[in-house]
Q: What sequence folds into this?
């Protein structure tokens, strides 16, 4: 094992780190559909979006053409504090599984936010600072995005207001303290601090919240700040996939350095930030007809937007204050069961990934949470990293694909995204350790009921 | 900043990783005093120690002569999963402080145990496995050692019984779940499961425990296992400093690669595992008269063994079942105030470090916990890593030394050990965030009372 020429961990040097983000939209024949104004149902113009988002980020959001966008030096310097992230060869896991497959994972958890979210947080905070704003507002689910944004804001000296999905706020008390240590202001959502929060609480008393609710509250807080704040979002948006392309670019450089071509690339998918970032440069090659890869999006069976959702225009948030996006969605009113402990709770999906999936460039599977935690425990014990529940969706499918190779004898090369660590998810692990975790799959009736609430847009 | 030739993070390649541990005792003129049998007060022989420790580890414990001891291939392979750890240039901290000093830290927190403890855990578990044992017993304070040992045991397929200091068990509920995820059996100490635990509970009902108590329980559990288990210890012992020399060896190789010679090397000191490991190869040069360095041990003002303790033979544990060691000690009955939240709660200190300190090769300072958490918060916001409270003792003094350089204009090179992350210490951070943290310094009377309980050994 140790004689192998490929090291356990491939680290790029600073010189090998990307200097520009890759914009996969430039290579898509069918571009993602534009965001629509929720009032007029017409495509949002830059000036409309600038009430919510920073101006430079609006440009990036609307930029379907430039293949590369330069990473500003301040962001590149910040990246150097916690990047490059290692591309790890899972020798121990391969041996344990007895598979001829070669398994690699790009590990994004070696920073205090515990995930890849920091890659976009620093970019969004940077542009807010450049624009002279006082601060930013956002929502957070598992808490990784909120932590990442708190870190970025502390570094740049910006205020950070975080609306945290209530069930996470309660399940992850220590996440709040990490964000507070970085100086953030954290409110459980739905809350009484916004109109939309009060309305949701009235309609659904006792709700444990959803990302969709929290987004609505954070947007309202920004829009009603008199221009001092803008809203930032950790996933779903095309600008986020752009920033997250740093994951895929580093992965590709590392693989190229050793002459490795992956057969399958796997990522968990909630809003699509990690998966989109990881696959972007590889997808670019596939779109340009240069190479072929299998891409697999893995989502929870309890929140199956790609595998059971509709490809249609829908609201990005529960409160219906945000623009509409064309995406695979379960309906903006969909809230996964409170039993669900694996993250990836968003009702929709990145428009870019939705379009790519719709056009047949990508596969998707859904997995149940007990099998996800079984994979997580196995991975922790063998590879020594306690994974985030979100990331463990990708681990589950990577293991399944490696076991298929064991049956067929194929020596496939599998790359998956290990988005982060589970250190703040121990309530979920405790449930699993105690044998108290149950699975949950929404019924067709539940989904139909949710679909019926979606806006009817003929585009 | 970014034009500088030294990268933010120096990672060694696998080929540059150490293949042998360095044994600083080989270069000490005054060797650390031998362990004594608590009954006879005679030096412990190998065969006596083998009832408690694995045979190979006993050899390492008693080996004052061999300068290098080869690292077995299995351990080297395991090291490759989470090592080499980065040596980080703290560019951002330097800029914020406005100091001409150059600050580096060796960051050991990028693994699930969250600390350097894994370096010795895998070694000790490996030798237990080699000897055909069923498992190991141990104590843990902050939980880092217990987690590290659980990880090592899961990897090698050994049972792991952990006695966890009760105040940590209560302050860090999620640590228990991490250990359970790795298959460990965790008991709060003092407990009713051992004779010594029952005796301590009777004498001090409601005690929050101490490392000393937990050690006694773990030793009893091993000794009364009919030979199936041995006891392993995460600090204090000379074998642990040997294994931890991997930290210093990597640091030295990384510095040498860039032609950097440190002026000051700083580490936090509880039992001495990290500090001893970090400084060992540099201390070797100093002992051999090849180079000079300033070494600074940093300990909490609430548990000041080097700065206010006695250099004398004392029990390593509260229950007085372990051998006696000659060391700086506050008395084996000393238990820091329950207010103390910064770790490093051990009453004694590595015999190696004690001897070196006694012989004038090393300095020591003590710091109060509110100033430690101020440094921790500052570091988190600037360098992006939320540090363990233990590690933050070293950060505090590194910052203080860098600020002295700002006054004098000296361009000193400061290296400190960042032993780990504080993700499981959020109860302590919460106390600090809420302004509820208080300092505590034992009075001379308290220490005299504790010293009076120490054994009288004329050696």
A:
């Amino acid at each position: 094992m140790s004689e192998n020429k490929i090291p356990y961990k491939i680290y790029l040097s600073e010189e090998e780190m990307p200097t520009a983000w890759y914009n996969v939209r430039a290579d898509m024949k069918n571009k993602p559909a534009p965001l629509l104004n929720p009032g007029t149902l017409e495509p949002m113009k830059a000036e409309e979006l600038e009430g919510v988002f920073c101006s430079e980020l609006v440009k990036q959001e609307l930029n379907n053409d430039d293949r590369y966008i330069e990473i500003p030096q301040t962001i590149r310097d910040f990246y150097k504090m916690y990047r490059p992230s290692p591309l790890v060869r899972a020798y121990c896991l391969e041996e344990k599984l007895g598979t001829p497959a070669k398994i690699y994972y790009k590990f994004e958890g070696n920073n205090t936010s515990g995930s890849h979210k920091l890659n976009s947080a620093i970019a969004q905070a940077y542009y807010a600072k450049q624009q002279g704003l006082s601060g930013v507002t956002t929502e957070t689910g598992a808490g990784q995005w909120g932590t990442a944004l708190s870190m970025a804001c502390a570094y740049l000296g910006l205020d950070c207001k975080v609306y945290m999905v209530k069930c996470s706020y309660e399940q992850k008390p220590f996440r709040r303290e990490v964000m507070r240590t970085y100086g953030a202001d954290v409110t459980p959502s739905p809350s009484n601090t916004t109109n939309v929060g009060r309305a949701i609480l009235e309609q659904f008393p006792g709700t444990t919240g959803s990302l969709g609710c929290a987004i609505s509250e954070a947007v309202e807080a920004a829009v009603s700040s008199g221009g001092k704040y803008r809203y930032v979002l950790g996933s779903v948006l095309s600008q986020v996939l752009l920033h997250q392309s740093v994951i895929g670019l580093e992965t590709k450089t590392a693989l190229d350095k050793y002459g490795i071509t992956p057969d399958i690339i796997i990522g968990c998918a909630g809003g699509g930030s990690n998966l989109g970032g990881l696959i972007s440069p590889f997808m670019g090659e596939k779109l340009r007809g240069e190479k072929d890869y299998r891409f697999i999006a893995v989502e929870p069976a309890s929140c199956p937007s790609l595998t059971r959702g509709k490809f249609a225009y829908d609201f990005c948030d529960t409160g219906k204050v945000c623009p509409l996006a064309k995406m695979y969605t379960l309906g903006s009113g969909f809230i996964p069961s409170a039993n669900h402990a694996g993250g990836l709770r968003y009702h929709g999906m990145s428009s870019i990934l939705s379009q790519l999936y719709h056009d047949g460039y990508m596969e998707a599977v859904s997995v149940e949470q007990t099998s996800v935690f079984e994979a997580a425990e196995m991975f922790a014990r063998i590879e020594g990293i306690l994974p985030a529940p979100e990331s463990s969706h990708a681990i589950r499918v990577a293991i399944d694909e490696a076991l298929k190779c064991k049956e067929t004898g194929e020596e496939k090369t599998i790359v998956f995204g290990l988005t982060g660590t589970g250190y703040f998810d121990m309530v979920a692990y405790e449930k699993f350790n105690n044998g108290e975790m149950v699975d949950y799959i929404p019924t067709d009736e539940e989904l139909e009921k949710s679909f019926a609430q979606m806006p009817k847009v003929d585009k």
